[in-house]
Each structure stands twice: as structure tokens, then as C-alpha cells.
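The instructor's notes for this session suggest beginning with a concrete chain rather than abstract definitions. Hand out the sequence below and ask the class to guess, before any prediction is shown, which regions might be ordered.
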Amino acid sequence: MSEEKSDAGNDPRLGLLLEGIIKLAAGDLDARIEVSDARDEIDAVIMGTNLLAEDLQIIYAELEERVAARTKQLHEAHREMQHMAMTDSLTGLNNRSAFTSALTDAQERARNGGQRPAILLLDMNGFKGINDSLGHTIGDQVLEIVAQRISGAVREEDMVARMGGDEFAVLLRDVTPAIANSIGNRVLAAVDGIMEIEGHHLRCGASMGLRMAQPEQTAQVLMMEADIAMYESKAEGRGRLKVFKQEMLHARQLRNQLVSELKEAITGSQLVLFYQPIIRLDTRGIEGVEALVRWNHPTRGMVMPDEFIPIAEETGMISELGTWVLRTAVEQLQQWRSDPLTAHHDFNMRINVSAADLQRLEFVEDVRDALSSAGLDPSQLVLELTESAVIQGNDLDRYTLKALERLGVGMEIDDFGTGYSSIDYLRRLPVHAVKVDRSLLSALGSDPSQPALLAAVLQLIRACGLGAVWEGIETEDQAEYLLSIGCTSGQGYFFSRPLPEAQLTEQLRHHKAWPVRD
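After discussion, reveal the predicted structure:
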């Protein structure tokens, strides 16, 4: 018995078995141990070890397949995420990140001897009005159509991107200024066409800026300068292509400085109100004053509103500016009504209201609070609304107008006759009068047909149950003609220019009729 054990202990197969197990443990699943003809217990262990190796080999192969499949899925998911991260979900175009990256690459190629790229940046005109009045669903369809039109108007090698909102960009690779101009104008023409969406015939043109790249510029600087050119296009009437010029950057820097200064002016004491009388044409007595804001700049002197009102509108400061005008104007009216020397003039205060005011839920409360603080009846305040603000209005605008009507303030349409709407539409608004734009009166005396036109306009206004105030009266003849056709109210330099509070107060104390004869 002991001899058998000794023989087994010296069996060379045990060494082979041990060597095979070590190889398996090391990961060599191809290793196999030869089975002898003895077919004894040691051979049984060897066969079991070989079977284990085969099973492990099968399991490992399956595991490798699974790992390879999962790895492929992860790579595909990563590529999909990268594609999504660089693609605009609505239009399928490239997004801002993709555009910036491509522009950076194009600049690098240009620095290495390639032709310089150019970028077109365009912003849709009138898109906000479509979105607000017809809803985001139609607005999204407009953007999709615009994306298709831009893509169809550029070359195959060009890259089109949606930068966000209603702003698009085109990267023009390897172009001359002439080719870039040609492509830009082709894009503008394509975008400008009529769109038929759910029964609506819509037109939404664009303003465009073009920037030819310089080798040393970053993508961010190029896009900023294209943006400056695009806003220059908007300022000059839209629907145009403007090429960036260095003086545009200087103008933008001045504008940015003006924005900062305007913030200080509103919160400080640099704003002042001038007041222009509205006169009864029959008695020449004053029936109202229009409050007109001026900016008494510490170094530039008196800045007129056409310089800073557009900036206030673009930057969102117009509501804060409007609130200041509202409170200051009604407080001044209360002072005039409380002064025994001016109280005999029974007139109201007119202030201009911006489209942004109509969009603020707090606006009605601001008006109510200002009147309450000044102790004035709402009927003593008249809000002047531009045609464009109410014609393109949405549900919030209509709610605000109805709430103001219930409050009891007067409302009239300013600049009537500038071509925005029909009188029938205005008749359905809660307004009591229109202020006829000065352009209709300017031709009186030089155009033989103008008197009949003015009479017809006034008759149409009165037929709709509205009063009329005529702007731009500069001569006695104009005033007398308007009175002869039945117009009772007017405003213009013939009666008075806008006056500072102290000067108008002095005239109110000493004069009962206008124009003032000194």
C-alpha cells in the first residue's frame, strides 16, 4: 500500500497537472493536459481540468463578445450625444457650439495658408410679432422654413447654424468679399419670400451682417463684429446686408457707454420733462400738455429722446424710464392744479406709453398708484399709444387696455396715418381719440388735393366716434383750415415748442390763450 502511494507521488502526470492549472490561473485558456491510457483517478482529475478550461474558454469568449457589443453601443451613444450637443433640435442645423468650433478650425487653416473664411449673421425681422400673435407652434414652423431656405441658398461646402431664437449664421469657407456678398444677398432674397402656414400668409425678412475674417481674430471676436454689422443693418431699415467696418465697433463702444450712463441718468437726477401744449383751436385755450422726456447729460448737455429712447427699448430700460415719466408728470399736473395762479387752466396730462409697458402686468397698478399718490382723477391722464404697439398686440396688450379703460384714464392713438392699420380696427380699441401724424398736414398749401384729403380723414375719424388731435401745426393758416373743417384740437410749433416746467408755469400764470403774444 505504501509502495502504491509512493509510485503515485512520483507520477509525472501530477507535474503536468500542476503546470496546466498554473497556466489556466494565468489566463491561458488554450492550455490542455494530455490524458494517459491509465484512465485512473489522476486522469479523471486531468479530464475535469480540461473540461473546466473549455468551459472557461467558452464563457470568456461570450464575455468578450458582450464587452465588444457594449463598447460599440457606448461609442455609438457617445457619437449620438456629441451630435445632439452640436445640433439644433428644432431645425436640425448645427448649433452655436458647432459653428464656433468650425469657425475656429477654418481660421486655423487660413493661418496655415488657406483662403480666409467669412461669416454671415442674420436676425429675422418681425418674428416676435408672429410668435406673439400666432403662437409658438407657427413660430417654430417659420424657423424650420427659414432654415431650409438658408440651406438652399448657400453652397454645399458652407455651414448653416441656428445660433438661438431667430438668429442664424452661415460659415463661408474660402471666399472672396465679392462671393460672400453675393451669397449673403441670395440668402436675404430666399428668406424674404411669402410663407403659407396653416392658412396664414406670412412674410419674415432678415437683417444681415457680413464679417470677412482676419487671421489673428478668434471666433468670438468675429461673431461679435458680425453681430455689430447685423444691428447696423437693422438700424438702416432692415432687409439689407451690411459689411463690418471698424467705425461700427467704435459706434458700438460709444453706445455701450451711453447705455451705462443712461442707467445712471434714470436712477439719478439727470432726466427732465418738457411739456408741449395741446390747444383748442376755437378758443386757443390749453386743453392738455404732452410730457416729453429729455436727458440733461452732465457733459453733452440736453440729449433728445430720439438718441436714447431706442437704447432704452433695446436694453429693457424703457419700462423704468416710463415709470419715472409717469410719476413725474402726474405730480407736476397736481402742482399746476394746486397753484392758484395756474389752476384756472383746466387741462390734462398726456404721456407716451411704450409697447413694453403694455406687456407688463404691473403697468396698470403703476398708473393707479401714480394717480393716487398725486391725488388726481384718472380722467385727468391721457395715455398716448403708438399704432404699431396696439396693432401687433396680443392678449396681454388687450387685457392691459381693458384694465386701463376700467380705471378711467383716457387713451389715444399717436402718429395715426403712418400706415399700420385700418381705422375700423382702431374703432374697436378702447381709445377715445387719435393724434394725426404731422406728415398729413405738411403738404397743406403745396398740394392742391391735400385739403380734401385732410377733410376726408377727419370725417372718417369722427364717423368712428373718435376725436382727433392734429400734430405739426406751424402756421396760422393751418390752424384756421383745421378749425374750418371741424377739427377742435391741435399741437405744434405755431402754438408752442416743448417747454421746461418753469417756462410753461410762467406762461400759464400770465396767458389764457395760445400762441402767446409777448
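Then share the key points. The chain has three domains: 2-72, 96-244, 254-507. Residues 1-6 have pLDDT under 50 and may be disordered.
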